[in-house]
Design brief:
single chain; 266 residues; alpha+beta; Aminoglycoside 3'-phosphotransferase, Chain: A, domain 2; three-stranded antiparallel β-sheet; 9 helices
């Protein structure tokens, strides 16, 4: 019996999912329990401000970029339950795409373009640097930074003493801000593709008006990790820097480093 079998579902969601078979999605590090039905996804996680924010962003995204549609959102017994439609496609980290890195980098650039071309004038969520640093401050103060899930070079000899010292550095060294519709966690498992293009985005809890360089930094790192790094299987060429050529921009090492270090606190 999986961990979600023992919890009571809200009546409305229970009625919609009763008798349907599902699998547990264990890819990713969101900390949520995720049930994958044939045409729906149920995301269950502890109640927190950002869980309701995800539902709000998904509703706003409809008709703008391909993303799940909210079917129901409910809160019960300290948990939130987000039932949404299932976006079709394969994760960008699927071996089919990793074996075709030139096509993959083109698809990733297309995904970023779809986000960045979206009108953000009435977006209900802001994920600017001030917001991110405020949330990082709360995580540091509450001891929520997972030190076992950081780059070995970030803390210790040659790096930062602790999360507090990293946070102070981030606050003193903010880069220029380039607001767009940012996914917030644009790693390969959160981008769905097919043979013809981008079919959708998932795990949009951190989406909102934010800096495009956060998307670039996290996407490039994920691409490298899957091609030649910690998530790689087999020998593939490293096309991660090719991403800048396809995007038509020059790398900015300072911005890339700032956003990768910010991500260490989440």
């Amino acid at each position: 019996m999986d961990q979600t079998e023992q919890m009571r579902l809200p009546p409305g969601i229970e009625r919609r999912t009763r008798g349907l078979t599902y699998t547990e999605n264990v890819i990713g590090q969101s900390g949520a329990a995720v049930r994958m039905y044939e045409d729906m996804v149920l995301k269950i996680q502890p109640s927190a401000p950002w869980t309701e924010r995800e539902a709000a962003v998904l509703r706003w995204l409809q008709g703008k970029v391909p993303a799940p549609c909210v079917i129901d959102w409910e809160e019960r017994e300290g948990r939130t339950f987000l039932l949404m439609t299932r976006v079709k496609g394969r994760m960008a980290c699927d071996p089919f795409f990793l074996d075709r890195p030139e096509m993959l980098t083109q698809r990733l650039a297309e995904a970023m373009g779809m986000l960045w071309d979206t009108d953000i004038s009435d977006c209900p969520v802001t994920r600017d640097q001030e917001t991110e640093l405020s949330e990082a401050r709360l995580r540091v103060e509450r001891g929520l930074v997972d030190m076992d899930n950081t780059d070995p070079a970030t803390f210790g000899p040659g790096g930062f003493k602790d999360p507090e010292s990293l946070l102070r550095w981030l606050e003193r060294n903010r880069p220029d801000y380039e607001p767009v519709l940012s996914h917030g966690d644009l790693c390969l498992p959160n981008i769905l593709l097919d043979e013809t293009g981008v079919s959708g985005f998932i795990d949009l809890g951190d989406a909102g008006v934010g800096d495009r360089w956060r998307d670039i930094a996290l996407c490039r790192r994920s691409l490298r990790d899957n091609l030649v790094g910690v998530h790689a299987s087999g020998m593939r060429p490293d096309f991660s820097d090719r991403l800048f050529d396809v995007l038509g921009i020059r790398p900015d090492p300072d911005k890339l480093r700032w956003y990768l270090l910010l991500d260490e606190l989440f």
